[in-house]
Specification:
By secondary structure, this protein is mostly helical. The protein contains seven helices and three strands. Strand 2 and strand 3 form a beta hairpin.
Length: 172
């Protein structure tokens, strides 16, 4: 027995467009509107957990990127800003902020005396280890509305969409 879909905020928008422009197929607008609305609401849920650890989402992203890189949790600034898809200037500003909080430090590059590496401090490592556990628990809580099969289906569809939107990787 199929359950009836609960109307959401996007349904009202689609109804208005269908009334005003019945000649347009606004089906993609519904899907994209729901993705965008979910993104905003998900970010709010994620930010609550980050705030519990005294950090913002960008701070979590930088620390998590360094943590998942593996020991010694050390990356070049270029690797960081490329992975995080931000500019080098933004990365410089963010690293200064993280450094002032004692979560990262700059260390000499063993293979290139002209450059520095960014490394998690012990305080930064301890913080991200605690925060990522709470983050994953929060993600499980947020996604609990979906069954395992629905999660798999949603993930597959979003992966196909993401692959169609992202530019192909090129070997430089």
């Amino acid at each position: 027995m199929k359950t009836k879909k609960q109307p959401d905020a996007v349904d009202a928008i689609l109804a208005q467009w269908n009334r005003e422009r019945p000649d347009l197929d606004v089906t993609p607008m519904g899907t994209i509107g729901r993705i965008r609305r979910c993104s905003a609401l998900l970010q709010r849920e994620l930010d609550r957990v980050f705030a519990d650890y005294g950090m913002s989402s960008w701070e979590f992203d930088v620390l998590a990127t360094m943590r998942r890189s593996g020991a010694p949790h050390r990356l070049t600034p270029t690797a960081l800003f490329s992975t995080l898809m931000i500019t080098s200037g933004t990365m410089t500003h963010r690293l200064k902020s993280l450094e002032s909080r004692g979560w990262v430090q700059r260390v000499p590059h063993d293979n290139d005396a002209r450059s520095m590496l960014v490394e998690l401090t012990q305080e930064g490592l301890d913080l991200i280890n605690r925060a990522v556990e709470a983050h994953v628990d929060n993600e499980h809580r947020v996604m609990a509305a979906l069954s395992a099969a629905e999660m798999t289906q949603l993930d597959a569809g979003l992966s196909r969409l993401l692959n169609s939107l992202e530019p192909p990787e090129t070997d430089a």
